[in-house]
Amino acid sequence: MNAIALSRASTALLLGCSLLAPLAQADTQVVKYGNLVANAVVATPLLAQDSLVVDTFTTERGALSQTTTFTVGDGVEYFSGNAAWLVNTANDFGPRLTGVNIDLFDATNTLLQSDTFVGVLGGFAHSTFGGLLGPGTYTMVASGAGIRDSLLDISLTMAVPEPGTYAMLLAGLAVVGLGLWRRRSGMANDGDRWQMMRFQPVTPA
């Protein structure tokens, strides 16, 4: 592929990818907890690309039981989430939260998702969770035990594959594919013509 063809292909690909940029500004809803046992209701529905952040810091000790209820708006089809909490060792003096578990329930109190522990890095334990999630009302429950001060952060991000976005991306990729096909087709035809000219039998005079 020559430089001109590569330039055209790159331009088309960049055009297709640029069309993936979200058209609406994403919103972030933040819930702050200062107690181990607490609950909150997020009034504004979460739409595609919106995030919910639950931030906890407390000096209380004892059982962690936090319930956060939120609503997902039309168009959302799945979500991704992660959590991080401080797990300083028993001999340290910093926050120490143990046995953390995060569950997501629907309006009928059916368990939909639970977080999966990933590991500990820099004194923070990490977990992730995610999956299909359509419009409706949901409750996220965080449980565990605060041995000393407790610090816990949870974030959820709503996502949706928009048909219009995919159509525009596919259009951009189609331009790239068409350019490559025409380029290769042209090279093949040129090669065939060259072969025909080279091996055409000479007619005796």
Q: Can you tell me about this structure?
A:
- The chain is an alpha+beta fold.
- Helix content is 26%, strand content 43%.
- It has two helices and eleven strands.
- The strands form two sheets. It has a six-stranded mixed sheet, with no helix packed on it.
- A hairpin with a 2-residue loop joins strand 8 (116-121) and strand 9 (124-132).
- Helix 1 (3-18) packs antiparallel against helix 2 (163-199).
- Residues 1-23 and 193-199 have low confidence and may be disordered.
Outline the biggest β-sheet: 6 strands, mixed
Please indicate the percent range of residues in DSSP E strands (runs of 2 or more): 35-45%
- Rg, please? 28 Å
3D shape: elongated
Q: Which structural class do you get from the secondary structure elements?
A: alpha+beta
The N- and C-terminal alpha carbons lie at a distance of 42 Å
Keywords:
single chain, 205 residues, alpha+beta, 6-stranded mixed sheet, 2 helices, 26% helix
How are the SSEs ordered, and which strands pair?
Blueprint: H1 3-18, E1 28-33, E2 37-41, E3 51-58, E4 62-72, E5 78-86, E6 97-105, E7 111-114, E8 116-121, E9 124-132, E10 136-146, E11 150-159, H2 163-199
Parallel strand pairs: 1-3, 2-4
Antiparallel strand pairs: 3-11, 4-10, 5-9, 5-11, 6-7, 6-10, 8-9
Helix pairs in contact: 1-2
Summarize the structure.
This protein is of the alpha+beta class.
